[in-house]
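Troubleshooting: if your tokenizer reports a length mismatch, compare your output against this known-good record of 503 residues.
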Amino acid sequence: MAGMVYLVGAGPGDYKLISMKACECIQRADTIVYDRLADDRLLSYARKDVELIYVGKASSNHTMKQEDINQLLVDKAKEGKIVTRLKGGDPFVFGRGGEEALLLEENHLPFEVVPGITSAISVPAYAGIPVTHRGIATSFAVVTGHEDPTKAKSNMRWEKLATAVDTLVFLMGVENLPHITSKLIENGRSADTPAAVIRWGTKLDQRTLITTVGKAAEDVKLNDIKPPAIFIVGDVVNLREKLAWFDNKPLFGKTVLVTRAREQASLLTSKLEELGARCIEAPAIRIVEPDTYEAMDTAIENLSDYQWLIFTSTNGVERFFNRLNSKQLDARAIRGKVAAIGVSTANALRSYGVLADLIPVEFRAEGIVELMQDMVKPGDKILIPRAKVAREILPQKLRELGAIVDVVTAYQTVSGDVDKDALKAMFVNNEIDLVTFTSSSTVTNLLDILGEDGAKMVSSVKTACIGPITMLTCEDHKITPTIVAEEYTISGLVESIKKMFEI
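Known-good structure output:
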């Protein structure tokens, strides 16, 4: 039985610009054939057992010839597979989707086309340049910049194209810019016409060069601008001065190293990217199961004996309730009161149907102890499910109040899977503007990964800590944090980072 092929436009670069239908096609696929301009994060929507085939094309460097890609789609569909061909931009705007579709039709194989937002309009928009504007531009044309200038006969009607429309958008034309600009001038376009070259448009490393038709080729060479980039010609370019928005975000142009565990990094990364930061996820820690659940299981069996349960992290909440559920139990098994170290931990508890009875104003162990001084009676039993390695001040102070405290390991942190050499190179090459630390373990594990000169490398850039405990760990390793969040949460950390770069 023949399969199905979806020719899907992934949009211009910003992965959030993909359509809902495109996401459905990714989720449905047995095989995904994807190219260089499709953001890898889109692949997170795919099934775990999906077959991934990369066929990316860089300038003069093709992983697979187009004819072979066409045949690959046919072969996979004949195997009865659902195939999603994920392409940057739109499949039918210089995406060669028509060629792929024609071969599928020739082989009597079903296909659908899922349009994507083309870079021709979206990239200028992200640079603050509308391709049309009342009183300035009432027409625009999208032109390939990839035509071989040495071919005997050009398909380009330069004598008409140069002056026929107000705005010209050339896609993938950086390498041919001397030819393109000379042809425009030769056929009547003024050398003084405003122009822009936009590299990696809509992505967080977007770069925009404002120039003129006459100077464009020279300026691109001087500024070392490489593909992929678009070239836009017309008076609408002047509107960028007032309409630029994307690269006016407070963290635009800043590269932030996120050291949080990979499964938790998305929230911090997402918040920083919303402010324009380019985030590099290098998880210094990884959350894993404890060596044994023996102590946890014993505590769960005797859960009704505890007057208090204290949770010091969202990880502790998640791991405790996962283990509780594995015993066919839920929140109803809890008889005592529940304390959460902060708002995030309290929200995690709420997701399991538990409302925290106590949340300290100061989101650390000392805050819990201060609130519980008058609540804990000698002989009260308290359960603390937490990381294997953690500060001892909380159980110590509670025991001083006469409580019987059971500390059980709900999870442990180990060093994350990070490319050590690549990470060190980023520090050496001054490619990192800020390092974020969300726990003491992210500090110590990152330094372990970087090795002997780790503290020196980290000290060479700005650092942001989520709270005072993480700050003290930095200082123990002779790292002086640039900022410490005023509110000890991810949102508080992001807000403090924003304020720092706005100063």
